Fold GAF domain-containing protein.
Amino acid sequence: MSDTPRPGPGSLPSALSAELTARVPQLLEAMRSVGSGLELHSTLDRICETAAELTGARYAAIGVIDENGRGLADFVHHGVDEATARRIGRRPDGHRGLLGALIRDPGPVRLADLTTDPRSCGFPEHHPPMRGFLGLPIRVQGEIFGNLYLTEKHGGQPFNDYDLTMVRVLATEAGIAIGNARLYEAAKQREHWIDGSVAVTTALLSGGDADDALQVVAEQARKLSGSAAGIVLLPADEGGLEIAAVAADRPSAMLGTIVPPESGIVAELLDGQAVFLEDAAGDPRVITTLAHGYGPTMMVPLHSDGRILGALVTPRARGERPFTETERTLAVQFASQAALALMMADAQRDRERLAVYEDRDRIARDLHDLVIQRLFATGMLLESAQRGSVVPEVREGVGNAVDELDVTIQEIRTAIFALQQGPAEAPSGLRTRVLREINTAAVPLGFKPSHRFVGPVDALVGDLTGKNLIAALREALSNAFRHARASRIEVVVDADAILPDGRKGVRLTVADDGVGIPDGGRRSGLKNLKRRAESLGGDSRHGPGIGEDGGGTTVVWEAPLE
C-alpha cells in the first residue's frame, strides 16, 4: 500500500464505523495514559507503548528531529529488547532511508511491505524483520517534533484506515503531552543551572585557595551540562590558554597543558566568542591531542565587565547527543556568572592579602623599633656586667647569653626581611620558593618550621611539578596553621625519592605535632593535594604526625620527575 493522503477536517466523523466506535474507549484510555506524566523521555516511552497497544503493532518508535531539521537527535523505541538493541549497535540517525524521507517530506506513510519501498535502505545486522509500516509526524505547537513509527501488526495484517485515524488522534494528544513535558524539562533544567551558579558563587566567596575555586567551577559545569569533563583554562604567560582545573571521572594528565595561541579557537575565546563543536576529535580547528575521544563540545569564555578571565570547556564523549540551543545559552550564562564570582573572589583575596601585608609591615616595624632595640640594650647591659664580674663562671655564662642574643637579633632581622618581601620579589628557584613559603608561614604560626632538602632540588624538579609542589606545601602549612594547632612542623623536600612504582620522583613531607585530623572534618584541602599529585602521575596521602604517641599529621605529596 502506498502513501495515504492526510484526511481533511471533516473526514473523521465519516470514518466512524462500528469498528472505530468500538475502539474509542481504548483511544480515550490511550490519550489519558499519554498525558499522565511530565518527564520528557518517559512521556516518549509511554507514547510508543500506547501507540503499539492501540494498533496492535509489535514495534513502535519515535524519532526526535534535531534542531537543524536534518536528522534525529534521539530515538526512543518499544518492542526491541535491550540485548537486541546492543547487538544492532548505533541507532538510526535519520540521514537516509525511509526515516530520512519522512524528515524531508513529513506526512503519513502506510506501507504493506516497507522492504519493497524504493526509499528503504535495508536493516543493519541483527535487526528484527519488519514489513508492515505506519509513520506520521508529531507536531508540537505547530512545529514538527519528530515522527512516530509503527511496524509489524500482529497477525501479519497491514495497518488499515482505522489504525491511521486512531494514531492521528493519538499523535495530536502526544504533541500536547510532549509540549508540556518540554516546558517542564526546560524549567527544571534552568533551575538546575541557577542552583549551580549559586553553588559556585557561594563556594568562591566563602574563601579558600584560588585553585579550589577553579575546581568548583569545573565540577559544577561538568555536572550541569552532563559532560564527560569540565575544564577551566586561564591565559598563559607565554600566550595561549593553560588548563588550570579539570573535573573528570579519572585523574587527568592534561592539568597544566597549554593550548597554543596559534589555535583559531583560542583567539575566538580570548575575543569573548563562544565556540561550539559537533565533533571535537575530528574538527580541523583543534590542533592539540587533548580532544581525542571527545565529541560535542561547548567552549565558552569566562568574561565579566569586559574582562576575559579564561574559558570553560565541557566536552561529551564521541557519539553522544549534541548540546541543544537551550544548553548552549545556559552554559554561556553560567560562565558569565562564574566569571563574576571569580572576580569577586579574587578581589576578596586581594583585600585579605593587603590586610596581611599591612599586618606584616606593622609586625616588622615593631620587631625593628622595639624588640631589636630592647635586645640590643639588654646585650649592652650584659656586656657591662660581664666586664664588672670577677667570677670566671659568671663571665663565661654572661658571654654565652650575649652570643645567644646576637644570634637572636640576626634571626629577627632575617624574619623582618622576609616580612618585607613582596610577591614580585619571589625568586624562581624551587629551594628558595620553599624557604619563602616557610618564612611566610612562620608569621601566623608564631614559630619557624624546620626544613631539609635532599638531592639537587632546583636541577631535577621541573617548572610544572615545582609549581604544584609549592601549592601543595602552601596548602599543608595552611592546614597546620588553621586546624592543627601545632607547635612543631618539619618540612622535607626529597628530589632523590623513589616512588612506590619504582620511578624517580620528588617527595614533599610536612609533619606536625598538632591535634590531627578529626573524624568527620573537612577533607577539601587533602583532596586538592591528591588531585594535584594525580594530575602529574603521582599521589598524596596522610598519616600520624610527630607528636607524642604519633599525635599530629604527616602529609606526603609526591610526583614523578619530568
Residues 141 and 229 are 35 Å apart (CA to CA). Confidence is low (pLDDT under 50) at residues 1-16. The radius of gyration is 35 Å.
